Amino acid sequence: MGLFIAWATDQAGYPVTQWGPGGLILLALLAIAFGIVGARAGEMPVPVRIAIACLAAYTALSFLSILWARVPGDAWEGANRTLLYLAVFALFAAWRQRGASAALLLGAWSLMMIGLAVYVALHLDAASAAELQRLVPSGRLVYPSGYPNANAAQWLMAFWPAVLLARSERLPWGLRGVLAGGAVLLAEVALLSQSRGSLYATPVMAVLVLALLPRRLRTFSVLLPVGLAILAAAPSVLHVGDDRRPNGEVIASTLHHAIAASFAAALAAGVLVAAAAAIESRARLAPSSAAKVRRGVTALAVATLVAVLAAGLVAAGNPITRIVHGWRSFKGGYGASGTTGSRLVSGLGSNRYDFYRVALDEFAAHPLLGIGVDNFQAQYLAHGRSDETPHYPHSVELRTLSQTGVVGALLALVGLGAALLAGIRACRAAPGRGLDPLAADVALAALGGFGYWVVHGSFDWFWEFAGLGAPAFAMLGIACALAPANAPPAAAAPARVTPARSRRAAAVRRGAPIAAGVLVALAATASLAVPWLSQREIEGAARVWPTNPAGAYARLEEAARLNPLSDTAYLVAGSIAVRYGELAYADRQFSLALRRSTGDAYATLERGAIASTTGRRAEALRLLEAAVRLNPRDPLARQSLLVVRQGRRVSVEELNRSILLKARQLS
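and the corresponding structure tokens:
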């Protein structure tokens, strides 16, 4: 859990230099658990065994996709990320837990996320004006993940476990108050990111929680004060992004007021829930009085539902018109969104419609096994219509379909379905059945956190953030670990004396799985370690090249040797050589990059420009035409091709200056 918090503090665990070594730690923990605790598959619930087997098969398919991926280096990285999630899930799901131990794990993570939200809020409150513009650019909080939507998601993934744990009468009343108040603060900090995805995912989650989880009145009794506190502070929080200076900068006083309102709302909700929990823990109502209380809460819940629906209709207007407008803005791109009012209600305009169109087209073209893990970008450059260059299709479901095909989708669906079935069984625990009732409360809370990741990740690229995906699979694993275990096998009859040959054969049968497991563990360790070490060398070269180009080249050669599938080291080396005017060396590096990833548009463009600069017009035409085919919407590639067709030469220096300028504008 501490590893998950470390990822949450910096880019949500997105860079391989973070989740790579983290994956090695998780593999070590898994090996320790198997070595010290051991594992008896026969006692593991059948759905959990099915889930682990299917997710392991999906991981194997991800590695196999390297064979047919256009960019094998990206496929290897994506397969390693899938391996990471498998290790997390197995670590939490393969060994049965008690309700108390699971509550300690999930509660500790929720409290640490609340503590991190407190730190972020106080850090914003104390930040200078210049730092605020870096942390909250254009009125959207990006700290600490670097991506506003991931920022909102990591807080809201902790919000649901905190709320659902706060409803458990089996936890101390003070802890329940802290969790409820912390949930309010998590929601307000998430709101600072102004994520439209979270705006739509949250009500969907609320409906699912109230419709599917047992003891709805108890859930409602906690959600009501928490929701009212969030609504009370929300206007102040939204003003941070909506009321800015003409140049787009955040007004510090507005932010200070929002943070103060958030803490006040969190305190009020926490005190209210703690007081109610304390009364509940001490008071024992007569059956008639308890029935009256339930009827009163039911009436309040119905009245709240009616009020929410009425307010929604008033705010949205004609629902048919609203749906039509939403669909048109979704298809229309960013230009179809409104330019006035809050960003959260500006519409659904983005380029996701185009991302999804290309992903579905690729699935239709490669239905069985897909295009290879994390190989979306090259396809989008060739077939997309927007100016964006997304690496991922921004949807967990479409990622699975387009990149691993029907086979991968079925493996993922069966595996996750089996895990959810095990979690649902854990949620049905009741004292009358001889099961642990605290386990049911914790399983519900864990499924709430995983459910939010799935709902919001259905229209965003959250699979690629280990700081989001790993806690999600850990929570799913916790729910599975709380499922009722299979009955232990009947005691075997006393063993008879067997010949030495039979004993040796039995020892071989017992040792074979152990040997296979050791080999798999070693392969997994090497698979995670090699790309991480390679990326470290690349980042080291990026730091030293302005003062020590020779040292940078040496480190990049080592990076390319370590990772024989990735073209990144050669691309970086070629870019550095262009800066120093070493065009022959640069051309050789870009050529090596194209040997590893034949469809790299950037390397093709650079080689074409170098050929033009050095007077090789025919080669330049061939390469630049290929660059335009690979990325038809790249204005620099089209302009370079036009220059060569007109009989002039492309300036590599001017081209790279334009590439750098475009990169800064996009960032």
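(Above: one complete record from the training split.) DSSP finds 26 helices and no strands in the chain.
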